């Protein structure tokens, strides 16, 4: 069955199967888990085109509102976005924005008073293949990996550079080869 033949259930986003290159500017590329229970770690994924929240969030909120109802609040990683306001008016509704320095690759969307959806955020510069793999993993109910691990495992992001080895780093064997004294293990 092709994606266009798949039945559309109210409250669920249709799976269009489109790639990032096929999406026109100003549209949201979102994939939500299309089941009636919410057993997975993540509820879906979002692939914004930039780190400009003012340009990206309206399309996401509009798409979600159409399928799940009004969005009242969005929690964002402060380090992942350029200038973050505390609220935006989207489709004639005020949407409150919370920002936290979490660095976990997610966005938390609140519908109503307490209904939360956790979306994996695909980095804008991810390749289409990596983004598709990360989106597919994010909606699997049997995938318990955290968002950061999905992004790493699918190649949608690269690991942060680790600290450079210092003179006291490494094993006792490496210390012996280099002529420095090994620190006792704790």
Automatic annotation (TrEMBL):
Pfam families attached to this UniProt entry: DUF5994
Superkingdom to which the source organism belongs: Bacteria
Region named Disordered: 1-22, 143-186
Biased composition regions of type Basic and acidic residues, renumbered to the chain: 174-186
InterPro entries: DUF5994
UniProt name for this protein: Uncharacterized protein
Species this chain originates from: Streptomyces leeuwenhoekii
